[in-house]
Amino acid sequence: MLLLAFWLILPYVNAAFLRKVQSKIKDLLQQMEEGLKTADPHDFSTYTGWTGLC
């Protein structure tokens, strides 16, 4: 249902807003890529979030 609502409002979304969202996604992907490049390949620790594992 949510996906359908997204596609119905998509033509009305401001182009500037879409550019802003795309820019943010691109920035976050670049940060993830840089993090992967600098990660220690022998470090097998895992971040489990602030609640830990359930």
From TrEMBL:
InterPro entries, alphabetized: 6hp_glycosidase-like_sf
Query: Does the keyword Signal feature in the UniProt annotation?
Result: yes
- Give start-end of the signal peptide: 1-15
Q: Which domain of life is it from?
A: Eukaryota
Keywords on this record?
Signal
One GO biological process this protein is involved in is: carbohydrate metabolic process
Q: What is this protein called?
A: Uncharacterized protein
